[in-house]
Amino acid sequence: MLCGVLCISRKSICIGQCNPYEYINNLRLMIASEKIKIENVPIKKIALEVGFINPIQFRQQFKYRFGISPSQYRRIWSLSNSNNKITQTTCLLMTWL
Predict the structure, then answer these.
(1) Is residue 26 part of a domain?
(2) What is the phi/psi pair of residue 9, to 5°?
(3) Is the Cβ–Cβ distance between 61 and 25 less than 8 Å?
(4) Residue 9 falls inside a structural domain
């Protein structure tokens, strides 16, 4: 039923070497990773929004997929964005000098 709703079949999913559950789970994790980077809402809320009922399971799956916890992922992205903003500001100031 789920495969029919998503317009995919078991064969098309197996091309990517995963079963339908893994495919949906990876999709949820990718969406969550983007939301963690962009939105400043609690990670528990993001987990619920993408379809994880248990926040502990979300954390475990996220860490397995990305190698770091969701909170570490957010910290790294916020640091890289702040460093990027500093670099952009520095470049703008340098062009004015």
Answers:
(1) yes
(2) -125, 170
(3) yes
(4) no
* d(C-alpha 68, C-alpha 83), whole Å: 20
Per-residue model confidence as pLDDT tens digits over 13-26: 445 577 888 989 99
CATH number of the domain within which 81 lies: 1.10.10.60
7: left (phi over 0), alpha (psi -120 to 50) or beta: left
Task: Identify the burial level of 52 via C-beta atoms within 10 angstroms of its C-beta, where 0-12 means exposed, 13-18 middle and 19 or more buried.
Answer: buried
CA–CA separation, 39 and 81 (whole Å): 13
pTM of the complete model beyond 0.85: no
CA distance 4 to 60: 29
Q: Are 29 and 62 in contact (CB under 8 A)?
A: yes
Measure the CA–CA gap between 70 and 50, rounded to whole angstroms. 14
